[in-house]
Here is the input.
Amino acid sequence: MLVIKGTYRILDTQPDGDTVHFTPQDPGFWHDVPGGHRVKRNSRGGGTVRMDAIDALETHYQGVGPGTVHQPLHLGAHAARDELVAWLGFTGVVRDADEKVTAATPETVPGYVLASGADTYGRAVCLTGRGKPPSGTRDGDRITVTVDLLRQTANHHLLARGLVHPTFYGNLPEVLRTDLAAVARRARTAKAPGSVWEHDLTTDGVKVDSLASITEQQVLLPKLFRRLADYIRLFGPALDAFPAYLAGEGESFHVPEQEQAVRGLQHLVEVTGDTVRMTRPIEEVVLVEK
Here is the structure.
C-alpha cells in the first residue's frame, strides 16, 4: 500500500463511521494511488478517504430519489461516526441538522493513510492512521502492510469495538482479511452494549413493511441496506422482486468453497414473505471491485 502523510479535516464536511476528509502534505501522491480509478481532489489537494474493509451504518445515504436516508441513528450510526472523529483527535465537534460539522477542535489533526486504490466515486480506499507514519517509512513509500500495522489503524479499532460491519474486497491481502474476520466474529459474539451487533438482524432476518423498517427500527449490513432502501424507494416495500433487483445490479463476489466468482447478490439473500436475510456472515464474502 502507498504511504501518504497529511492532515485530517472535518470542518464543513459530513464524516461518518467510514469516510473522512484527508489532505496530503504532497497532493501529488494521489496520482500514485494504484488501480483504474483516480482520487478526486478539491482546490486544496484534499480528497475523501473511504476506509477499507469496514462498512458503517449510513447517516446520510443519497441513493435513488430526492433527499437522503439513514440507518437507525440511535442504534450505531452516530456511535461509529463519533468514535472515528474522537480517535483521530477531534473534540468539541458541533454539527448542523444535515450532519455537517460546523465546529471542531483542532481544525486539523496529523495522520497518514495506507492507500490501496480508489473507488468509482473517486474516494481513496485506505487504512487510516493517526499521528506519524509507520517507523522507517517515508511519504510516498510503497510498503507491505503487516497485521501489527493493521492493528494501529482506525479500521481495526472500529471493527474491534463492534461499531462497524466488515466488508472485504479482493484488493485487501488475505492475511489482513483473516485477522479482521476474526476480530469481527469476536465482536459479534460479544454483542457489546452500543455496538451494531447488539441489534444486527442481517442473518436473522429483517421484517420489512415500510422504508422506516430499516431507517428507524432495525439494523442490517449497510451494503444490504443500500440495495434494499433503493429498491423500496423505487418499487415499494413488497419484496417479491427484490432478488431480481439484486440480480440486475450484477455485483460479483467470492466465497471460500467456490473458485470462480459468483455474480449477483441474490445468491446471498433469502426472501421469505416480508422478511429478508443474508444466508451467510459477511466476513466469509470477498466482493469484486468494479
